[in-house]
Amino acid sequence: ASSKVVIEEFLHGIELSVFVLTDGKHFKVLPEAKDYKRIGENDTGPNTGGMGSVSPVPFADKSFMKKVEKRIIKPTIEGLIDEKIDYRGFIFIGLMNVKGDPYVIEYNVRMGDPETQVVIPRIESDLVEILASLKDQRLHRKTLKISNQVASTVVMVAGGYPGSYAKGKEINGLDEVGESIVFHAGTKIEKDKVVTNGGRVIAVTSLSKDLKDALELSYRSVEKINWENFYYRKDIGQDILALNNS
Fold this sequence. Notes:
four-stranded antiparallel beta sheet, single chain, 246 residues, six-stranded antiparallel beta sheet
């Protein structure tokens, strides 16, 4: 038997993801996002790779994000420098908002899916130029302009996911979507037709002036797309809307 006992603090709150870009010396904070991991509505059932996401997150206001920057982001970058780790790229920080205070759940050295589908569309600056500045540690000289629009993503999956599911189902209606961005994940072209080739098949992202409108756009687009035995959650963002109305 192990001689060590690990005691973890239980964190009760709302999760969110904060994304940081660093050149090893400087950093820029990208738009934050909230994703929905469980397969079932009202966050029930098994975990998945993500069934949807929204950005921005209303409770991540200036006061909250100042705490994130001071308590978490700056010490993280300083820690990398102190440890002589020359890391240049994305840092994904999974956080829990506990009564207005941020607590770290996890770190990743990448972006997240499906959070990326709501984060990147809100960046109005030339992202390629910003990424290129990392090489010579010139990130601090670049301007990161973020749109005030709200983004929402709804993920469409194969029936049975995250368990066993069928592939090769023809996807219809893609050409009918004009007001949203359709991101392909588990798809391929077979005999000039787009067919399913994974569990999480498509993510549909929309931008609008507020979350209600963005969600309506995404779901309107989702309703135009179909294949045999597809599934999507119909409650993405509803907890945030309820929070806004409370």
